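Here we describe the complex-level prediction in full. Unlike the single-chain runs in Section 2.1, the two entities below were treated as one system.
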Amino acid sequence: GQQVMQIPQYQHVQEGEDFTTYCNSSTTLSNIQWYKQRPGGHPVFLIQLVKSGEVKKQKRLTFQFGEAKKNSSLHITATQTTDVGTYFCAGPSKNSGNTPLVFGKGTRLSVIA
Amino acid sequence: DTGVSQDPRHKITKRGQNVTFRCDPISEHNRLYWYRQTLGQGPEFLTYFQNEAQLEKSRLLSDRFSAERPKGSFSTLEIQRTEQGDSAMYLCASSPDRVFGNTIYFGEGSWLTVV
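The structure predicted for the assembly as a whole is:
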């Protein structure tokens, strides 16, 4: 079945440094979503990417969807302590966009002040 | 607040006991999902409903697990004869039934510890 892999598993950065996490799928995705989970919290939706090569920005966060729609990345510019948490990518379990999401294992970000 | 709510938030149970979790989705959402999450892992899909119909069950959902959504509103997840390996956070989520791109909204989760 559908698998979504993320690297790195952990990332420790100094506050102000940039951070990037990568997501790769075993199959072409109709869409990819990103979620953030703060320590002790639950996953919260950040964004959805649909189009090949799509780039979306949310303040210091930049999300990209690969041309082949099999990979994605999340880049944070000038990290802050509020960015701490685990970032998950997720894609539909089957070719249809309207099927349950399969999540990657996440990238856990620590920010050292 | 009209988000997804789960109850109880924490449950400690002895091995072999049964436990039940309840989820109340966002009111206008007709899809409801159950996921399980262990430390250091992403959410793993267990099952989902569209209204009262259970549309899919993961292989992770052994015969000790059963989920219901009798009236298409709240849902329950029951685990019978709990084992230590069942210790995890059980996440409920809901979404509207769109043709494409079902963003899901998670509840705060129910932590289960089996001792």
